[in-house]
Design goal:
Length: 324
């Protein structure tokens, strides 16, 4: 064999080796579908989840994961959530991202899932009868207690701390959730220390018309609305910056809440970074699916204090971009 033929032969051998490696990879890897992650949140089609789902979708795209957003209405109990989990297990999903349902029994449902499929809880921990108890589950969420504290601090700040005699109504969502209980607890502890008089507290039950119930309650000077759904509803009905004679401060997660702030119907917003919640929760799941030995970690995400004057600042415009 001449030197030239020898070189040609070696090149051909190398090309065949490359082609063989390519076909081998294609057979075992090329047609493997992306792993599926089911997302279970209450009222999944609601606009308040836009930023959260955008964060998840972006991370899923980067991590080559298939996102299944379950079609849900209100999750009134652990049984509702258990049924949704069962349906997705039958759908052969590989992991879950879950906003836990109200009530103590949710713990048992999630303990049954643990060890079967990886999951991350978002927005809140499971509810517990113990006020400051934390579960052992992985969570990606804002500090709900801190959010309540921050809202009270802003209210005190705007009255120069002179809250003596001022009357306050506290409005929250389902009382059997970690989110509502810790937001109320954080707000009340700071406000009571600052001299504010909390006249009443209201937790919305399923399908109640919060607006009508609030109108029937004793008059107050300020409303602290700690639930985004109720904030949108009450804020929309405010007139000249007041609802039934009260100024509104609240926790919001929708574009509508920012519009109400811009219109002067809400005085101050505390806003969790839902894009970060979505992005980080999906990244934790992706790491676990890639490496079964990976120990997932909880994340505490940022919150923003927003006034009307802040809406066109660079930081807030960047923050609002995540809703698009």
């Amino acid at each position: 064999m001449t030197k030239r033929n020898k070189i040609t032969f070696l090149i051909a051998e190398a090309l065949l080796a490359v082609l063989a490696a390519y076909f081998f990879y294609s057979i075992f890897h090329g047609d493997v579908p992306p792993k599926k992650v089911a997302v279970i949140v209450e009222n999944s089609g609601d606009k308040r989840w836009d930023s959260l789902l955008n964060g998840m979708k972006q991370a899923a795209k980067v991590q080559n994961l298939s996102l299944i957003i379950c079609n849900t209405d209100e999750q009134e109990s652990s049984e509702d959530e258990q049924e949704m989990i069962r349906e997705q297990l039958e759908n052969d999903v590989d992991a879950f991202i879950i906003n836990p349902a109200p009530g103590q029994d949710t713990k048992q449902v999630l303990e049954q899932l643990q060890g079967t499929k990886p999951f991350v809880l978002i927005m809140q921990d499971i509810y517990s009868y113990e006020a400051d108890a934390a579960s052992s589950f992985v969570t990606v969420k804002p500090d709900n207690y801190k959010m309540g504290q921050e809202l009270a601090e802003q209210m005190l700040k705007n009255t120069s701390g002179l809250m003596n005699g001022k009357r306050i109504g506290v409005v929250a969502g389902n009382a059997r959730t970690e989110e509502s209980r810790n937001r109320v607890r954080g707000f009340c502890e700071v406000m009571e220390a600052g001299g504010g008089r909390i006249i009443w507290k209201y937790n919305q039950e399923s399908k109640e018309d919060a607006g009508e119930i609030l109108k029937a309650k004793e008059k107050v000077d300020y409303l602290a609305v700690l639930d985004p759904y109720i904030l949108d509803e009450v804020g929309e009905k405010a007139e000249n910056g007041f609802y039934s004679g009260a100024e509104i401060y609240g926790i919001g997660t929708s574009i509508k809440a920012f519009s109400l702030l811009d219109a002067g119907k809400i005085q101050c917003l505390i806003v969790p970074d839902l894009y970060e919640v979505g992005y980080e929760s999906m990244n934790e799941i992706a790491s676990k699916l890639k490496n079964s030995w990976y120990q997932m970690e909880s994340h505490e995400t940022e919150i923003q204090v927003v006034y009307k004057k802040d809406l066109f600042s660079e930081d807030i415009e960047r923050f609002l971009y995540s809703y698009e």
